[in-house]
Specification:
With 252 residues, the protein is mainly β. It has a five-stranded mixed sheet with strand order 3-7-6-5-4, with no helix packed on it. 8% of the residues lie in helices and 44% in strands. A hairpin with a 6-residue loop joins strand 11 and strand 12. It has a single domain, classed as Neuraminidase.
Amino acid sequence: MGTYNASAAGTGYIATYDPSSKKVTKLTAKGFDSPRGLSPGGMDIVPSTHNPDELTIYVINTRPPYVDLDPDLPPDIREAKRDEIASARTKEQGPDPSIEVFRYILGGDSIQHVATWTDGEVMISPNDVVGLPDGKGAWFTNPLPYRTEIVRVAFLNHSRQLLMPIYLCAKQPNVVSVVLQQKLSSIGFCGSDGCKPAATGLYGINGIARSPFHSNDTFYVAHTFLGGVSLFTRQSDNRLLLDEHINTGERI
């Protein structure tokens, strides 16, 4: 996040690639008219339970902060002002992430926007997402406990194992929080009823996947700092319960 550029945000898009023709098709996002645009990060694509040709696309959108300007301003001045204010707010507050939900029919040249999910308390620094069929909900990983710009410095010992990550929050440049194996990462869940924590108190996590055999509801979460993969089981309220940790000996 330390390199986030608010003025360049919002220009992303979703595309398909046909390996036989090597053709890339930029998909038109129908119904998605956010002035902050799309700044895609992690993404998951899930087939419908009713129609395998209908896909739900979940996208992490690392949006700049919202800026409300006078609509009577000339368009060029309004855009310049929006970029200026958004850049300043990003340095103070960090970006304002969301999960965008789209529906896509295989072979089409457009996607239909279905929903935007966001929560300032739960969706902090999302970098990966894994969803349910038919747009019913999605889990996402928060590697960091802050939205503001962060510099991470890792001290390694001779065996290349992580000893100590140090976080420096740019909003308070004189305050260094030294974190020695503290559990600051989290997993959140969002759906039509809102967002909530799914698992908290985790070491530096970096991505999430769900078993293709959905009947067992096993989730796999990668760890950057300590190395390894944690296995979680979905509960009836969509929270995730830690079952096992597999140590790989390497950061993932």
